[in-house]
Amino acid sequence: MNLLLTILVEGLGYASYLFIVSLGLTVIFGVLKILNVAHGAFYAWGAYLCAFLIGEFSTMGVSDLGTMVAIPIAALIVGLILGSAIERTIIKNLYGRDEVLIVLATFGLFLVLEDVILLVFGVDPYFAYQPTYAMPGVQIGGIHQDGYKLSMIVVSLVIGLISWAVLNRTHWGKLVTAIIYDSELAVAMGINVPRVFYTVFVAGAVLGALGGAYIAPTISVAPGFGVEVIVLSFAVVVIGGLGSIPGAAIGALLVGMLRAYAVLQWPEIELFVVYAVMAAVLIFRPEGLFAPAKARKI
């Protein structure tokens, strides 16, 4: 019983931040039809900036709980400034281009942004542990659980519900849906498609940075750690279905639970399990478990 509880909590904790990052990736693809490899750089920049700000706030005498304000600040700065700059200068020129060209271009952009991180933040790792000390742990089933990890689960749930509500219950969501199904018809209807593309890309960048910022206090933020998360995020969205918010949630849960089980019971196949499930899903459901329905064109 204790083992199952540990796997559940650890799996949910891992899936929570992975879902936030994957949500930004799948929303960008669902609307812009761009498989953005550079999304991993937003995650890395969010983590680095958050860790840097936490350290600065701590030296200024801000309480451990108060340093948590660095998380949304870092996510917004990365999304609104870096995400906006990249969309306006590079991404907007890739709309409607060949998929291979898009992947190559965003992969090159990812490498450039990873190197710029080294120039800005240096090569030494950052340890921003203060927020984890601010939240007391709780006893669940007689096992002590990290309060910060539980907060990540709650935050990811809230973000998922808000994203679903915005896309399915608001006027803005109707505009996005119209563009997803037929962008040319959306233009004919008077929808400002470039503005919607810009907004969606920036929102996706904010989500990617938020995932990195929230996980930063629990890890050593070091060069190159954004590579693993972008690979796992691709696995999540492929399993769930590119462009599907419920699919991203299910994919993150599968990856999180399988990884937690493997780490505790079979650590030598930790990554193999994730990719084995992805391969199995692609064999039987090439478009993912919850791929959005495509409009039939006559």
UniProtKB/TrEMBL annotation:
GO cellular component: plasma membrane
Topology with respect to the bilayer: Multi-pass membrane protein
Top-level taxon of origin: Bacteria
Subcellular localization(s) per the UniProt record: Cell membrane
InterPro entries per record: ABC_transp_permease (IPR001851), BCAA_transport_permease (IPR052157)
Keyword Transport: yes
GO biological process: amino acid transport
Pfam families documented for this protein: BPD_transp_2 (PF02653)
Membrane-crossing residue ranges in chain numbering: 12-35, 42-62, 68-88, 100-128, 148-167, 196-217, 229-257, 269-286
GO molecular function: transmembrane transporter activity
Keywords attached to this entry: Amino-acid transport, Cell membrane, Membrane, Transmembrane, Transmembrane helix, Transport
Family that this chain belongs to: Belongs to the binding-protein-dependent transport system permease family. LivHM subfamily.
Name the UniProt record assigns to this protein: Branched-chain amino acid ABC transporter permease
Organism for this UniProt entry: Thalassobaculum fulvum
